[in-house]
Write a structure and sequence with these properties.
Blueprint (H helix, E strand, L loop, with lengths): L17 E6 L5 E6 L2 E5 L2 E6 L4 H8 L2 E7 L6 E12 L3 H16 L10 E12 L11 H12 L3 H17 L3 H16 L3 E7 L4 E8 L9 E3 L3 H9 L3 E4 L1 H19 L18 E9 L2 E10 L9 H19 L25 E7 L4 E4 L2 E4 L1 H15 L4 E3 H5 L13 H15 L3 E7 L2 E6 L2 E6 L2
Parallel strand pairs: 14-20
Antiparallel strand pairs: 1-2, 1-5, 3-4, 4-7, 5-6, 6-7, 8-9, 8-13, 9-10, 11-12, 12-13, 14-15, 15-16, 17-19, 18-19
Amino acid sequence: MIARPEQHFRLFQGIVPALISTCASDGTPNVTIISQVFFLDPKRVALSCQFFNKTKRNLLENPRAAVELWDPVTFEAYRMGIRFLRSESEGALFETMALRIEAIASHTGMAGVFKLRSADVCEVLWFEKADDFLLPEPPSEECREKLAEPMAAEGPLTELRALSIVSARVNRAGDLDALLRDTLVALDELFGFRHSMVLLLEDCGTLVAIASRGYGESGVGAEVRIGEGLVGKVAEKRVPLHVTGVDARLRYSRAIRGSFEALHGAQGLAAEVPLPGLPDAQSLLALPLVVEDRLLGVLAIESRDPLAFAEWHEAFLQVLANQVAIGIDRLDEPEQEATEPAGAPIAAPAAPVARATHRFLYYPSDDCVFAGGEYLIRNVPGKILWKLLRAHAQGQREFTNRELRLDSSLGLPAYKDNLESRLILLKKRLLEKCPGVRIVPLRRGRFALEVDGDVALEEKA
């Protein structure tokens, strides 16, 4: 059976670094590791050039080289003969390859130092499996069946069925919370993606996780600044990012940082950005949520499996992300004005024998709120919570989104204020940190603030 590069998607994921062998014009050989071998089509690949090194000089002098790649599942080796064609330092190919490197570099504080200099396009002259690389004993039939299992569920019918199911859930979602919850559940049930989150953009240029699955309570509230780390780079570039072998790439970038610091010191290098989800993630797929030219947020999916994402997942899930973005935009529209008077005091429930006191501390300088001495929330959601708590102390129990939008002291934008997402974040943070104080939806655009016991409010300059 003739080996073809397009039939071996796993080889080009970078989970096992590839080796490239080049030769100078005087016949001196050089073998080194290369970080990216990017598959373009059956006749072309692109190599990442991050340094002006001996490999690049050799390719310019003698354009023929050999590359060895390994399958991360079977550990079989494949060899490929290539001929250097040209270098690209701009355009779609360069931007796609550069994003992976920039994201890892940004995560480890090496932005601007550890970067792609060019994408070197090469012609594939031949491609073959390396004979006798492994022991001759073949894998068992059971092992072969197991290796084939992930591919068995793929194909157009499965993709269309999954898209149909997700589309139906997006369309019937009555509020933003239900939309995000159903989307992440669908990713788990239909694709087996156990860890996912949606981060929405705040006015201050920060992405905040308002929905997550698989992280327990720690997922909601995670923050990432635009341009920082893997997720922040996706928000900045507004293009999908698929990274495999995350741990190995981070270790490589940290090693480069260590060498740089030894020569030049750490001055000018940023601190490492913590991953917003799994600390031991091996693969990441992050997709921008964009409507027209507006960035709404990022859908991030992680896995401890370095081969969690198949070749078709990126394009397919971007279609899903586009639908989710449209749904978010639709559900963030202001509601119709309430027919009943908003904010009318209602009778408080009968007091229990022993009433708990929930203590809140508010700092107006950054709108930061602490509950029981522990950080709870900040920025605009912090302002909203403080308004609700003060109104509750004066006897108000029900609120409308409209009255919040009309309150100029909250500083909500006149257009696309993300109020729904801020209330969802506030609701989940209260549930996690202070369950005795709850935001309870009543119907679209109206909610109640329920308190088990009393509240004590303190404000500090």
